[in-house]
Amino acid sequence: MRYLTIALSKGRLTDYSIEMFEAIGIDCSELKSSSRKLIMSDEKNKIKFFLVKPADVPTYVEYGAADMGIVGKDTLLEEGRNLYEVLNLGFAACRMVLAGPAELAGKLDSLKDKRVATKYPRIAREYFEHKRRESIEVIKLHGSVELAPLIGLAEVIVDIVESGRTLKENGLVVLDEIAEISARLIVNRVSMKMESERINKIISSLRKQLEKGVVSK
Ligand code: PRP
Questions:
Q1: What are the angstrom distances between the C-alpha of 152 and each of 70, 121, 123, 148?
Q2: For a Cys staple, 185 with which of 77, 79, 87, 122, CB 3.0–4.6 Å?
Q3: Which uninterrupted H or E stretch holds 187?
Q4: Which of 195, 178, 80, 91 is nearest to 129 (CA)?
Q5: Do both 86 and 189 map to the same domain?
Q6: For ligand 1, is residue 74 a contact (CB within 6 Å)?
Q7: Do 116 and 194 belong together in one domain?
């Protein structure tokens, strides 16, 4: 039996992902150790894991270097990779929104030469071009996006809102909802056919755990 390879997102999704796999009887002890090893395995179930930056998870899965992966819907929308999204895992739930100063509510379309700052240029472009049918300049940032409208870099932002605290504490409001975000299980298209039995077993076990509400969110 060959190893099934699973790509996991490094960061906020890591602990939840480990919890999910442990709940279905996959040994993740190597993943939990502080080792610098890049590939970890569960020898009994013939599963290999590796942890990479979230944006790289869909890349590994599309090319088949990983059979499966766990990644946020935000990353999937932004990366636009060719793969199967097979299960909404529910954890790390948040929203992708358009946000800005309250005085822009309802007035955005009349604003000329506007700019949007975001970590998600593809999502922002798609939203403005297809949903609002407005032109806008997209400015890519790598973090602290809420700063942009405060300091005059952009009028609005496209970003993730979880508790809403960052927006509130910076005097910004949600101007529109773009997408519901949460962690998703993704599968390589060829692996889905070649390893359908093992992969479908993992999917149905994870689904059962979700129905039982075993995994915290
Ligand atoms: C994310 C996001 C918001 C914040 C939202 O940033 O980009 O800034 O969390 O959370 P809240 O609604 O609960 O306040 P992250 O913590 O990833 O840091 P970053 O600014 O470096 O992107």
A1: 36, 18, 22, 6
A2: 87
A3: strand 183-187
A4: 178
A5: yes
A6: no
A7: no
DSSP-derived letter for residue 4 is E
134 Cα–ligand 1 center, Å: 26
Pinpoint the alpha helices (H) of the chain. 14-23, 29-32, 57-62, 73-79, 121-126, 147-151, 165-169, 189-194, 196-212
Atom of ligand 1 minimally distant from the CA of 144: 20
Indicate if ligand 1 lies below 6 Å from the C-beta of 146: yes
Give pLDDT tens digits for 8-57.
999 999 999 999 999 999 999 888 887 888 899 999 999 999 999 999 99
Domain boundaries, position 112: 94-180
Ligand 1: which of 160, 163, 169, 173 to mutate, most ligand atoms within 8 Å of CB? Answer: 160
